[in-house]
Write a structure and sequence with these properties.
Helices cover about 30% and strands about 20% of the residues. With about 290 residues, the protein is of the alpha/beta class. The protein is globular and about 60 Å long. The protein starts with a helix and ends in a 22-residue tail after the last helix.
Amino acid sequence: MQAAKAGLDAGADAIYVGLKGWSRGGARGELTPRELEQVLVLARQKGAAVQLALNTIPRGREIDYLLERLPELKRWGITGVILNDPGILAYIHRCFPELPLTASIGCGALNVDDVALLEEIGASCIVLPGTVHPAEIAEMRPYVKAQIEVMIHMVDEFHQLGKCWMPSYFRTNPSPMPEMPADGERLTGSIKRGGAGVCFKVCQHPWGLYLNGQKKEERMLPARQVSRAPEVGAYLDAGVDVIKLQGRSLPPELIFPMVRRFRMAIDQVREGRQVLEVPPFELPPSWVVVGR
């Protein structure tokens, strides 16, 4: 709730929020139905939109439960849903063709063919990582009718989201899913772990190098912060419709300055000015290793 309010207070036009049991962000950052209603009221007061993050990888019976809930969530006022599984995205589009669906960065789109495929199966908006250059997006734009959303403030990890090759690592102690039918629990593990879906970021833990059974050294796999506020104008000129910021796991006191920084950059571009004097914003090193 506090994080959503911080983003809206800082000038976000729209926010993604997770509902209990359905968000890759983990149980700590998810909203109860009551809290979601409160966020929707706050967003309406600010003239902002709220999309629902349904980016776990649910089991079959859980998908049915999700489909039963979507009509009610639409009535509450969500403006769309973001998903990271192309199969579920296509299924929901067939069931609710009028519901705007965003293909998450987790769908792994990087080029015009990826974007065209996601558009064909029902995505009205496709998220690209901030590592894709504005010139590449300008080349895609003439061939894509869907909105293009770029996450230009993010942590760039050594693997491409959606193409993670570490699916065999997961925790076996389930976390409660109070709203879920059946077992009411979910596993936490790699994003592409079938039937689970919460990324535990095992890639961001120390890895040891062993030779003949002896540990030689310990290293962290590379991760870096990508923050391209000075290039907001280039992205908008290239045909980007939505500038996205990765705020999951950040405390409210860090979300506000991050959103404010990009709000200023976008406003300066809209006013025909160069992006100047945007206050710097550095994330704490611990951001890339989320303790869950």
